[in-house]
Amino acid sequence: xxxxxxxxxxxxxxxxxxxxxxxxxxxxxxxxxxxxxxxxxxxxxxxxxxxxxxxxxxxxxxxxxxxxxxxxxxxxxxxxxxxxxxxxxxxxxxxxxxxxxxxxxxxxxxxxxxxxxxxxxxxxxxxxxxxxxxxxxxxxxxxxxxxxxxxxxxxxxxxxxxxxxxxxxxxxxxxxxxxxxxxxxxxxxxxxxxxxxxxxxxxxxxxxxxxxxxxxxxxxxxxxxxxxxxxxxxxxxxxxxxxxxxxxxxxxxxxxxxxxxxxxxxxxxxxxxxxxxxxxxxxxxxxxxxxxxxxxxxxxxxxxxxxxxxxxxxxxxxxxxxxxxx
Amino acid sequence: xxxxxxxxxxxxxxxxxxxxxxxxxxxxxxxxxxxxxxxxxxxxxxxxxxxxxxxxxxxxxxxxxxxxxxxxxxxxxxxxxxxxxxxxxxxxxxxxxxxxxxxxxxxxxxxxxxxxxxxxxxxxxxxxxxxxxxxxxxxxxxxxxxxxxxxxxxxxxxxxxxxxxxxxxxxxxxxxxxxxxxxxxxxxxxxxxxxxxxxxxxxxxxxxxxxxxxxxxxxxxxxxxxxxxxxxxxxxxxxxxxxxxxxxxxxxxxxxxxxxxxxxxxxxxxxxxxxxxxxxxxxxxxxxxxxxxxxxxxxxxxxxxxxxxxxxxxxxxxxxxxxxxxxxxxxxxxxxxxxxxxxxxxxxxxxxxxxxxxxxxxxxxxxxxxxxxxxxxxxxxxxxxxxxxxxxxxxxxxxxxxxxxxxxxxxxxxxxxxxxxxxxxxxxxxxxxxxxxxxxxxxxxxxxxxxxxxxxxxxxxxxxxxxxxxxxxxxxxxxxxxxxxxxxxxxx
Lengths: 326, 492
Description:
The complex is a heterodimer of chains A (326) and B (492).
Chain A: H1 2-14, E1 36-44, E2 48-54, E3 59-68, E4 76-83, E5 86-87, E6 93-96, E7 101-110, E8 117-123, E9 127-134, E10 146-149, E11 154-159, E12 169-176, E13 179-182, E14 192-197, E15 200-205, E16 214-221, E17 226-236, H2 239-283, H3 285-290, H4 310-325
Chain B: H1 4-16, H2 27-34, H3 43-64, H4 69-76, H5 80-96, H6 98-108, H7 110-129, H8 134-163, H9 168-176, H10 178-210, H11 212-219, H12 233-239, H13 251-258, H14 262-266, H15 275-289, H16 293-304, H17 309-335, H18 343-360, H19 366-396, H20 398-430, H21 434-468, H22 471-474, H23 477-491
Helix pairs in contact in B: 3-8, 3-9, 3-10, 3-11, 4-5, 5-8, 5-20, 6-7, 6-8, 6-20, 7-8, 7-10, 7-11, 8-9, 8-20, 9-17, 9-19, 10-17, 15-20, 15-21, 16-17, 16-20, 17-19, 18-19, 18-21, 19-20, 20-21
């Protein structure tokens, strides 16, 4: 997103001269042997196709398109190239179908950021393939803010994918109003530390304060241009998580107290029950001795008096055994 | 290797040395080994809920912390393997503290141990949130946290045995469901905490959340041991003079145990002569090498086959969901009168099905194949987890379970820790996941078959032992009581 706006800026400044011409003049290439060369090919299956090409530095890029005409009887097709939607001069070619296939191939000299953009190979109005040439962009970073604490330190990281080329260097910027201010370790070595390691970069920020909250930008600098991505930092105090923590501790204390009080209440009730039932038991000794507390493999019917009321359970069971007997 | 006859002779000789063999097809008889009749309901269900929470935190908490690892790794500028040590330390402490936990439970009961465990994990997390070095995290989260979780796990398992006998497989199955449910809840919660508070704040809040284990502990009321059975004198005879029940809260048994040797009371080494215990131990040690590896590598394998990241994570969700529903179901099935007497076979089947599942995994093609594999794997995994401790209780009896599980966990520490790295090494060496799946499949199928065979002999042996006992003791308690009642009727 950032790079798009920067590109627009550059194009607006540099492309000012171009608005007068109808099309863009890209002279046919004299391959510069010192430059890298690469080839990208596309075989069009349907009506259109898009391919993204990472261009880290100036290079000679050959783009090839192959199209299979499906059942169309037209023998001749006009093939041509577009850059950013505008015709490229001298690119129109009349192609003859060979085995229902046509090929378009052209080598482009990508020398600076202006050369980047969307290159399209067109087969008349039938089909097209787009090649989006751009500076390799930075891997998706968190869209949610990175959270850290006052007085603590934090590490912000950016990296490009392993498969992509390595940037020449990395730069970090801090949002300052609408501008971006570059972070240099020279100015404040205790505060900022930048560790670049090829395809990744890390910014260490120490002694955080509330003012450090905001947007940070990491820029991957390639020969041909710069890719930028941003990270948000949020600095909070320890009191923020402390509030839910205290709430939960209170909840636990309340629950534990309630459970233990409930248990104490139950055991007092059953002690009273036991005492009264002991009197009953003493009143009729022969009956109780005849039936031992039966092993009841069914769960006790009264669930509320499950535990402390041992004697009452035994008496209940003996009464049920008596019932079974009779 | 020994053939089956020699194996039988060995076990026969062990039996003659007078060790306990709890007949597992007489559940009511084993209940009398406890010295009282467990409630099998009532407050027991509250205890099941409490165990659900404790077991859930014990198993799910270490797994859910991995969400923070990336940020902590960057913060301390360390490598991935260094941060992974936190998980390993936590798991190792949790398993190593097993015997300590058992001893404490035997001595003080489940409730105080769980409450102390909850406080330990909580303070460990709070301390860790102020950590300045990675070693700080190893010690706090790893060691102290691991110990605290062990103090949650063992008592939670043990107390179910004291509250349930007839419905014990169901209770165990329900309690073990805590693990996937808590994991399912913690995973998005941890993500939310991380987004809002970073890792330090999240550790602080997690420290608070884990205090709910203390709530679970407060629910773990000691079971009422006063309901004695008249037949309790008989089980003490069959137990043998040198096998005191570990549970010394019942008054008569306590008097006996105080006369016993101190060491013997703490670490019941005689368990190693227990046939069922040995079968369980040997089979489990081998099985655990291949148990957790496939879980860890499910998502990476999917990505390797070209599945995108979200669909790979979805596979894990399917696995966890199936696991969640299978556990109580198997608990219920294990409780039925057809399965309960021969529940060891169900466990053997569960282990074997894991093995078969992994062996067939490399045949799974495409995402649909992987989904089918995830479903069957979830089912098998849930089956094993649900029955894992129930079968141990079934073999050694509820009163020795606490000691047994302590010994088992510390011995299982090795395979549990080594399993995933070894699986990873297999993947790295061959560059292909299928050899790891074959290895894990074999590592689970062989113990499964081992269990089938050994338990077949064990059941036969137990049946013979029962027949050799005097007839009155052979009948189930209920039958005996009915006999007595009939006799009383006849007399009147």
